[in-house]
């Protein structure tokens, strides 16, 4: 007679976040790489989010620690990967992320760009694209790290414009520069280097790189699923499919190959954990956190009901389903925060977590304000509550 699946409560799921995501003070990381690995990867569409997410998880929050990892040791790298989104992952994990998701995205990007070049009807094709790519790599070898504008000045082909969706009502003229550079980056042949400006800037320079070692896609998906289960389990098939952007079939195969163990969640739905990972989480002290828009701890599940009251969604999410800056208490989202133009950090609690929580949240806000210093951050993801608080 088969044994009934172990049940893991919503409270236990919240308890896992403090230690596994390095959010409780006693569990914080000492390096930016440890902080990134704790959540598999840091969302990187917004340059500031990378630093805010990493420093929230560091014992000694410091922009210099994150920048060293990104631009000196290059132990953290940016990859176009899960959900066709830019993430920062550790150098050790990057080959698995690239093979499981990144390579397929890059191949699709190349097919689409070549299709648009051919449709333009001006003799542009895959051979023209290869020559343009070679010219970019030669320019980087000659001039060193360069912005997109500097590369366009050095490589005339990048100043080419094409007409896309010709004959349709949404026909438009596009420059190819951004698309060609983005494709080289997606394939790992170039990478983003230091931005022009501060850590909040997205005007990156580009430098030459080397593609990641070749791995079988199925092997890579299995490894990524295994690590995801450790950090985010228990979670459902739908959660993994959503987080990765894989097909449901790929998600199911990866879970099976990783030896995922079925458990039952509070609502009776089947979830999965890493093999044998059903014991109660070792306790940590009560903790508060102020996390940025799109932080992985808020975005890694399709169903976030265990740490987010559905009544709070309207205030904390934008129209596209992206979450803004959030305030946490013991694994639960209890409010949102923003930075005003004068640098003041402000927040609003959407539920009453008690006096101890309020004191801890104020202390965490002070810690965040101290390491941010004179920096000003306006998230790309503007949500109703963030806009209201920042006004």
In short:
This is AlkZ family DNA glycosylase. The protein is an alpha+beta fold and 391 residues long. The chain has helices at 10-20, 32-38, 47-56, 63-72, 94-120, 126-143, 148-154, 177-186, 217-232, 237-244, 248-257, 296-299, 313-316, 355-372, 384-390; strands at 6-7, 42-43, 76-80, 86-90, 161-164, 172-175, 190-195, 204-208, 261-264, 270-273, 288-291, 326-329, 332-339, 345-349.
Describe the structure.
With 391 residues, this protein is an alpha+beta fold. It has a domain at 288-390. 43% of the residues lie in helices and 16% in strands. It has helices at residues 10-20, 32-38, 47-56, 63-72, 94-120, 126-143, 148-154, 177-186, 217-232, 237-244, 248-257, 296-299, 313-316, 355-372, 384-390, and strands at 6-7, 42-43, 76-80, 86-90, 161-164, 172-175, 190-195, 204-208, 261-264, 270-273, 288-291, 326-329, 332-339, 345-349. A 4-stranded antiparallel beta sheet has the order 11-12-13-14. It has a 3-stranded mixed beta sheet with strand order 1-9-10. The model has no long low-confidence stretch (mean pLDDT 95).
Q: Taking Cα atoms only, what radius of gyration do you get, to the nearest Å?
A: 22 Å
Mean of residue pLDDT values: 95
The arrangement of helices and strands along the chain is: EHHEHHEEHHHEEHEEHHHEEEHHEEEHH
Taking the sheet with the most strands, its summary is:
4 strands, antiparallel
Structural class: alpha+beta
Overall outline: globular
The count of β-strands is 14
Helix content: 40-55%
Tell me the β content.
15-25%
Q: Count helical runs.
A: 15
The parts where pLDDT drops under 50 for at least 5 residues are none
Strand arrangement in the largest pleated sheet: 11-12-13-14
| Cα separation of the termini | 62 Å
Pfam family, one: AlkZ-like
Protein name: AlkZ family DNA glycosylase
InterPro entries: AlkZ-like (IPR009351)
